[in-house]
Amino acid sequence: MQRTKIEYAELAWNPIKGLCPVACSYCYARRLYHRFNLVDKDPYLDEKELGAPLKRRKPARIFACTTIEPFELSVINYMKHVFDVMRCCSQHTFLLLTKIPGNFKDFLKETPGNVWLGTTITRQNEVDRAYRLREIPGPAVRWISFEPLLEPVWKIDLKGIDWVVMGRLTGGRGTGPAKPRWFEELIEIADGYGVPVFMKNNLKALPDLRRKMRQTYPTPNFGTLARFVRSRCR
Predict the structure, then answer these.
(1) Which domain holds residue 104?
(2) What DSSP string describes 141-202?
(3) What is residue 170's predicted lDDT score, i.e. its pLDDT?
(4) Band of the pLDDT at 107, cuts 50, 70, 90?
(5) pTM of the full predicted structure?
(6) Peptide bond between residue 148 and the one before it cis (omega within 30 degrees of 0)
(7) If pLDDT is split at 50, 70 and 90, which confidence band does 229 have?
(8) CATH code of 14's domain
């Protein structure tokens, strides 16, 4: 577990190692695996790293599984151990992001209440992920990461979504520049639903957005949190 440059988290925790089986063209972790010739590393559970949150008493916002898709079928069985640790660390808030939220409902009956569960949407034809996310019971926060936003998302139902994060593609990873209007339209949609918006710092490079920057956080579902604290580590 280590410090992270992700603005809305304090620590990154990656107890599942190996090459992510979902080959996103913009994945920074996949590029690192190729750079160090580790492409033959199948996903595996790092048991030493798994216990890292248990050793930290000070509350922290921890982004889990930042280098792998947690609900891909070859990875999802390891996630049972990850969720066990999350349940036993009620002092921490864990952020988790998936591109395939539909795989979750047959995996656990309920998400631990200290988990902010999100899905990534990069273009209009992926908005059904928001609907799948709403079907998952229990998370304190349901959120959407529009990063990297590769195309405009002009229509999406944010009912039941608690938080929106947005950012652009950076690091020369193979697509044209994002348009400020893409983000402005998403902000208008989020405001219409009363959903707080966190704009990542990489959007400051777009002059039209500099004066519109905001980095707000959601209010967790305290009913979910209360039930979780009473039932943790069962």
Answers:
(1) 2-231
(2) EEEEEETT--S-------TT--EEEE----SS-SSPPPPHHHHHHHHHHHHHHT--EEE-GG
(3) 78
(4) confident
(5) 0.88
(6) yes
(7) low
(8) 3.20.20
